[in-house]
Amino acid sequence: ARILRNGVEALDEFEKALQLAPAGTHQAWSSAATGQVQALLELDRSGEAAALADEHVATAERVLGYVPDPLQLIRSLAFARDRRENAASGAEEVIARLHGQGTGGLLLGYAHEIRALIAQELADDSAFEAHAQVCRELYLTHKHPALKAKVQRLLHARRRNTAPSSEQLLGSLDSTSALSTSRIEVALSQC
User: Fold this and answer.
1) pTM as predicted
2) Is 83 helix (H, G, I), strand (E, B) or coil?
3) C-alpha separations of 88 from 3, 83, 171, 172 in Å
């Protein structure tokens, strides 16, 4: 999605990826399913995004036996954008599970970033501040310019009291795809 910079093209590419790697056949399915929902959100098609996220979650539960965290997180954001009840609950569950497992780093930072965006959608200032702060702490620990830019976009959008643009959110989705890559890059940069 980051390379394409076009929601419609991204949507087509994710559809192709899902056809090539159906659930349970390749680990890329989760990233493609998450990306497809994100692309719909970028196109301001929140109703479709929420419905598709539900379909992907049902597929994950049926085929994989669990719901990957990034998919659960993007589903929660789609629910918030579609003004569904309990939009934040899925993200809260992911965050609680990650804390319970002792997981930190980029995945936890991404979870808090998405939860801050959900809070912004719901006009919950205190939740936004709390989750944005945790996101900032986790991302800035890595001293990576891309993570610093993500924090700045998140905080800048809040100061303007608007949701980040589709282009700005491309970085959010790419966090899920790039978590492994970023971890490797951070580890290598410290060598």
Assistant:
1) 0.79
2) coil
3) 29, 11, 21, 17
For 29-41, give the DSSP string. HHHHHHHHHHHHH
The count of other CB atoms within 10 Å of the CB of residue 122 is 14
Measure the CA–CA gap between 111 and 71, rounded to whole angstroms.
11
Q: At which residue do the structure tokens 């965290």 appear?
A: 69
Q: What angle do CA 8, 139, 87 make, to 5 degrees?
A: 55
Pairwise CA distance, residues 1 & 132, whole Å: 24
Phi, psi of 157, rounded to the nearest 5 degrees: -60, -35
pLDDT (tens digit per residue) in 2-46: 444 677 888 999 999 999 999 999 999 999 999 999 999 989 999
Q: Are 76 and 118 in contact (CB under 8 A)?
A: yes
Give per-residue pLDDT as tens, 98-121: 999 999 889 999 999 999 999 999
**SS3 (DSSP) at 66:** coil
* CA angle centred on 77, ends 73 and 81, rounded to 5°: 170
User: DSSP of 135-148, one letter per residue?
Assistant: HHHHHHTTT-HHHH
Would you state the structure tokens that stand for residue 146, as one six-digit string?
Answer: 């891309």
